[in-house]
């Protein structure tokens, strides 16, 4: 008993000495801490984030941040922990939230506040990066496990190993188990088809169909359909489509009438990334006139007539018809004799896009006017394309067409019909010879004196008139120099006109033309809307035009021109397409001028 008392006194003495030797530790134990803790600082858009606000003393009036970029799916939950260790009390209180991202990007979890012992404490801010959806979320949390097993978003790709410029279709299907019901859905992250020429096939209505998923009966609906033409060989990735879906999940509870009670929950689903291995076009057997046409095509060259008189006109049509990348190559030029006057061709496009790719025809319409009598041949032209079904190139050739001009002035040198030079007699005029006049008919010249004339008085008073004009002009220049904002607008307006003129001069040079056209469009917006377009995306520009009451058609045409300028960096554009884009830019700018 005596030893036990001595042992207790010894422990008490050691604790007292330690507290005297380490007063800082005792003070730190009493310090108030209020911290923000994240389950992770980087997550996919289909994952969940846990946010904890922890304090070591009890407080009141807790105020959370607004959680910009996230949606609260759970919380706040309170957790209080209190314990005694070696006579020291440990206390912890935590407010927990479960968040779901609403968009991709870098977001900041702001400061929370709490009042402890009459003083206000704030937590530190932390940044969170939200990336594209991941295939297997590490901490996916749902209100009900059934929801995760009953909902699947699938991207069905028609071909994973296409050739360059061969059509690939992607169909996004949402599979839903018959045991649950979908109340609503909205896209969170639409994929960006980099290195692809893409065209959406609109889904006008969502028809529910029966199918199977993983060998089990499911219902599915087609959400999105898109046709892609790869513009680069190698491995290309298709970003995933992500949706937030509100679903009704059955519970084990029943209502008064015995019907099953459903609970509503939200779930984010993703189609996952898809990789496509694009094969390059073979070099063996590649024709010299090949310009990127991939598919199966037919070539035809026709004329509206083969016999006509001089100064009459005829139409010659170069048409390529079939199935393939019809919008992504240039038609061959028609070669005509120099004696035929020909106008720039009018481009016509009759193309429809289905899940199997583009189908239809593209054609150039030439207007030809002969000046002189004779027979003129229109030589045949060739058109080469690559057939991905056979894996070979094929060259098509048109037949020669003879244009017979029946009447009109004959050429002074020759006719194209093959006859020799045509001699013409020289006929003299009746008044070929004239006699010289014998009377010169000279008249005396009158001398005008300068002094006292109208010119004398004008030069005398001209400096007096110019002085006030110079003063007014100087004040005007000073006012313009002080108007910094106005000078920027005027400079942007001049640059817009300059680059639009440069784009016209660069017609036929794809890169230089579209660079100049894009600068013209951006400088026009700077001049009219007083904005720096480098800080704006196309969506923000469209929103700003809508606020300025520019009609939807003009806004869509303007945004379409900006997209064409970007697409031209990796897509083949014909001279006709450049001419159309230049004409479109002139019309759109004129229309926006009237509305703004």
TrEMBL record:
Signal sequence residues: 1-28
Chain segments annotated as transmembrane: 450-473
Record lineage: Bacteria, Pseudomonadati, Bacteroidota, Flavobacteriia, Flavobacteriales
Domain of life: Bacteria
Entries under InterPro entries matching the protein: BatD (IPR025738)
Keyword Magnesium tagged: no
Protein name per the record: Oxygen tolerance protein BatD
Keywords associated with the record: Membrane, Signal, Transmembrane, Transmembrane helix
One family name in Pfam for this protein: BatD
Species of the source: Zeaxanthinibacter enoshimensis
């Amino acid at each position: 008993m005596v030893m036990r008392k001595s042992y207790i006194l010894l422990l008490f003495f050691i604790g007292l000495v330690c507290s005297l030797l380490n007063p800082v530790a005792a003070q730190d134990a009493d310090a108030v801490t209020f911290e923000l803790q994240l389950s992770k600082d980087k997550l996919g858009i289909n994952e969940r984030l846990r946010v904890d606000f922890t304090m070591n003393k009890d407080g009141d009036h807790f105020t959370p941040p607004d959680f910009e970029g996230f949606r609260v799916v759970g919380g706040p939950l309170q957790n209080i922990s209190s314990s005694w260790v070696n006579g020291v009390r440990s206390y912890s209180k935590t407010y927990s939230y479960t968040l779901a991202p609403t968009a991709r990007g870098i977001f900041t979890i702001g400061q929370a506040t709490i009042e402890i012992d009459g003083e206000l404490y704030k937590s530190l801010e932390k940044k969170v990066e939200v990336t594209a959806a991941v295939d297997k979320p590490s901490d996916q949390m749902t209100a009900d496990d059934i929801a995760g097993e009953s909902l699947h978003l699938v991207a069905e790709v028609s071909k994973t190993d296409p050739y360059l410029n061969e059509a690939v279709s992607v169909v996004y299907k949402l599979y839903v188990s018959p045991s649950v019901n979908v109340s609503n859905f909205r896209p969170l992250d639409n994929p960006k088809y980099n290195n692809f020429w893409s065209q959406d096939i609109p889904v006008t209505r969502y028809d529910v169909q029966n199918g199977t998923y993983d060998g089990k009966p499911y219902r599915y609906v087609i959400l999105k359909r898109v046709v892609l033409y790869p513009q680069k060989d190698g491995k290309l990735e298709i970003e995933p489509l992500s949706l937030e879906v509100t679903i009704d999940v059955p519970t084990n509870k029943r209502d008064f009438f015995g019907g099953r009670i459903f609970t509503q929950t939200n779930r984010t689903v993703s189609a996952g990334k898809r990789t496509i291995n694009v094969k390059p076009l073979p070099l063996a057997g590649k024709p010299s006139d090949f310009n990127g046409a991939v598919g199966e095509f037919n070539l035809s060259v026709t004329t509206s007539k083969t016999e006509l008189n001089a100064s009459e006109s005829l139409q010659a049509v170069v048409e390529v018809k079939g199935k393939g990348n019809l919008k992504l190559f240039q038609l061959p030029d028609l070669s005509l004799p120099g004696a035929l006057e020909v106008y720039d061709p009018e481009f016509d496009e009759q193309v429809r896009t289905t899940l199997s790719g583009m189908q239809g025809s593209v054609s150039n319409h030439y207007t030809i006017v002969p000046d002189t009598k004779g027979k003129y041949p229109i030589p045949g032209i060739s058109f080469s394309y690559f057939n991905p079904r056979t894996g070979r190139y094929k060259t098509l050739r048109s037949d020669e067409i003879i244009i017979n001009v029946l009447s009109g002035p004959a050429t002074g040198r020759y006719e194209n019909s093959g006859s020799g030079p045509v001699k013409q007699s020289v006929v003299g005029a009746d008044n070929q010879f004239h006699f010289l006049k014998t009377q010169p008919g000279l008249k005396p010249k009158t001398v005008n004196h300068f002094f006292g004339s109208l010119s004398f008085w004008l030069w005398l008073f001209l400096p007096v008139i110019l002085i006030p004009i110079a003063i007014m002009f100087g004040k005007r220049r000073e006012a313009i120099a002080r108007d910094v904002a106005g000078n920027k607008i005027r400079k942007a307006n001049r640059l817009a006109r300059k680059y639009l003129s440069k784009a016209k001069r660069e017609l036929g040079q794809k890169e230089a033309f579209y660079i100049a056209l894009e600068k013209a469009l951006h400088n026009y917006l700077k001049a009219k809307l007083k904005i720096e377009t480098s800080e704006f995306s196309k969506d923000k520009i469209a929103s700003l035009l809508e606020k300025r009451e520019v009609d939807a058609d003009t806004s869509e045409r303007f945004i379409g021109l900006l997209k064409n300028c970007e697409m031209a960096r990796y897509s083949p554009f014909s001279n006709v397409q450049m001419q159309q884009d230049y004409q479109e830019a002139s019309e759109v700018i004129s229309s926006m001028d009237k509305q703004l």
